[in-house]
Design a protein that fits this description.
Elements lengths: L7 H28 L5 H19 L6 H5 L4 H24 L2 H8 L2 H13 L5 H18 L11 H20 L5 H19 L9 H27 L2 H4 L5 H14 L5 H29 L5
Helix pairs in contact: 1-4, 1-10, 1-12, 2-9, 2-10, 4-8, 4-9, 5-8, 5-12, 5-13, 6-7, 6-8, 7-13
Length: 301
């Protein structure tokens, strides 16, 4: 398990890492959107995982013993988790080929809502009426962004929803593995599994690459490695419930990158839907934090 440093200074550093990480992940998505304009998405995903794994092998895994990296009690779940992450990445980056960056990320923010709903049948957790209400409100926010039945709806709006479901199940697998496996082993299998799964698919979509495309893949892998390293550091310094709301700052970066790089301006419905989704997600995090704090208090005599 990851030990959390419970000091205000540690929390501030954790929040700073989380903010930088959110900007990095938004930059990765924008870079993938650019690459996807003339490169098959499966090939982009493969390049991202190839250089991500090489970066981790050079700067992270080299400092950790081989036994610690490879030891797992749930190899099947580790590989399934990696496959879920590859699937969520591919579906989201394919959506970016057709949808504005901010709109796709906004719809993808349905993942915490789906995670809350799936935690009941898959983890046996109890979700009370307040959090169920927040889930419903959040899904209404998704409907505001997608606006089914209003005008012509692009089929690609379904892809961020697929991403949200896959990523929610990925997070559930992460929770399960955190009870049995070392975090560094999980990070290792994330990179290795992602590389193996994408390598199995990429021959069917391969096209010759230019030097600029190879450099772009290296850029994605470098950013991915830095982002995941910051993620681990953030969670060793501050509680997850404190850091979770700051993930929504990636929407700010996505809006800025969408405007300056692609000339995209979110419409009113996307902004309204984003506010509803973010509000419901923050409420769920706040509610879970309160329930855990109450459960941790000793019963009064």
């Amino acid at each position: 398990m990851i030990a959390v440093q419970s000091t205000p200074a540690g929390w501030q550093r954790g929040i700073a890492y989380s903010l930088v990480m959110s900007a990095i992940f938004a930059t990765i998505d924008a870079s993938a959107k650019l690459l996807g304009q003339d490169t098959p998405i499966v090939q982009v995903v493969w390049g991202r995982y190839l250089f991500h794994f090489l970066f981790l092998a050079a700067f992270v895994f080299g400092r950790t013993g081989f036994k610690r990296l490879t030891q797992t009690r749930r190899l099947g779940l580790q590989l399934a988790r990696s496959t879920l992450l590859v699937g969520s990445t591919a579906s989201f980056w394919l959506a970016l080929v057709y949808l504005p960056l901010a709109q796709a990320i906004t719809i993808g923010f349905a993942s915490p809502l789906i995670l809350t709903a799936l935690s009941v049948p898959l983890l046996g957790e109890r979700v009370g009426p307040y959090r169920w209400s927040a889930v419903v409100v959040g899904l209404v926010g998704v409907a505001i962004v997608v606006r089914p039945g209003v005008g012509e709806m692009h089929w690609a709006v379904a892809l961020p929803l697929v991403t949200a479901v896959l990523y929610a199940v990925y997070q559930i697998a992460t929770r399960v593995l955190s009870q049995t496996d070392d975090p560094m082993a999980t990070l290792f299998y994330t990179g290795l599994g992602g590389l193996l799964v994408s390598s199995a698919a990429v021959p069917f979509f391969w096209q010759p690459l230019t030097l600029e495309q190879w450099l772009a893949f290296a850029w994605l892998g470098l950013l991915g490695g830095i982002g995941h390293t910051l993620l681990i550091k953030a969670f060793t310094l501050a509680p997850a419930s404190l850091l979770a709301p700051f993930a929504y700052t990636s929407l700010i970066w996505a809006t800025l990158l969408g405007f300056f790089v692609f000339g995209e301006i979110p419409d009113l419905w996307t902004v309204v839907g984003a506010c509803v989704i973010i509000a419901s997600g923050v409420f769920i995090v706040w509610r879970e934090h309160r329930l855990r704090a109450a459960a941790a208090q000793p019963e009064s005599a």
